[in-house]
Write a structure and sequence with these properties.
Layout (H helix, E strand, L loop, with lengths): L2 H15 L12 H10 L5 H14 L3 H6 L2 H8 L5 H18 L8 H5 L6 H10 L10 H9 L8 H11 L5 H15 L13 H4 L2 H14 L1
Length: 221
């Protein structure tokens, strides 16, 4: 099957499975989305959603968040991985938004990535989901599935992003990256995955990918 044909079939299946793509992280505006995405590093969305209501009640805006001391922020997010570093970044980020951006989340990749704790993936999520700018944030699910489906070679997250952007129409990027995440969580785990029985891996994965998955699963037993 040609790459373009495979990509179209994958996109069609994901659209049928996930016609609606709610953002997994609870938020009310670009600022709370930015903070939630920053906090989600090495932590589940579910855990982030458990701690952010109280955090956002104390710091609903950049001004309010900047007025909190680091210890107060840390108490709210202590359950999350890397909490001490994240607490410092949340406060400093909020201070910078107030000092340099009139208390607003900037609408550019460059300005977002200059903020403490904000990498390219976080910036891409905010640009795509808060501002509607085409982006293709690549998390572990997307990186894994792109390699399984033969859409990228899995050498790096950066290369996976470039490959997926070349493969899919730009108009699909913002929705498709969420659809792939949902699919990965529901059907396509990293471990002990029955690739031949998977709705997409069953036909899209190469024989090499299936064999590699089998070897990995056998080593983990």
């Amino acid at each position: 099957m040609r790459r373009a044909e495979k990509a179209q079939k994958i996109a069609d299946q994901l659209e049928a499975l996930y016609p609606e793509t709610p953002i997994p992280l609870d938020h009310s505006d670009p600022f709370t989305l930015l903070i939630a995405v920053l906090l989600s590093a090495q932590t589940t969305d579910k855990k982030v959603n458990e701690v952010t209501p109280a955090l956002f009640a104390d710091g609903p805006t950049p001004e309010a968040m900047a007025s909190l001391d680091v210890q107060t922020i840390l108490e709210h997010i202590r359950q999350l991985g890397l909490a001490p570093t994240k607490a410092k970044n949340v406060k400093r980020l909020s201070e910078i938004l107030c000092a340099q951006h009139d208390g607003r989340v900037p609408q550019s990749f460059e300005a977002l990535e200059a903020l403490p704790g904000v990498g390219h993936k976080t910036a891409s999520v905010v640009m795509s989901q808060a501002f509607g700018v085409p982006a293709f944030p690549v998390d572990t699910h997307i990186h894994r599935l792109a390699a399984r489906w033969g859409l990228s070679d899995g050498k790096s997250v950066e290369k996976t992003e470039r490959d997926l952007k070349r493969t899919f129409d730009e108009r699909l990027w913002n929705k498709l990256h969420l659809q792939i995440i949902f699919f990965g969580r529901e059907y396509c785990p990293a471990r002990r995955h029955d690739m031949l029985g998977c709705p997409i891996c069953g036909w899209a994965a190469s024989k090499k990918a299936v064999a590699e998955q089998d070897r990995k699963d056998k080593r983990r037993r």
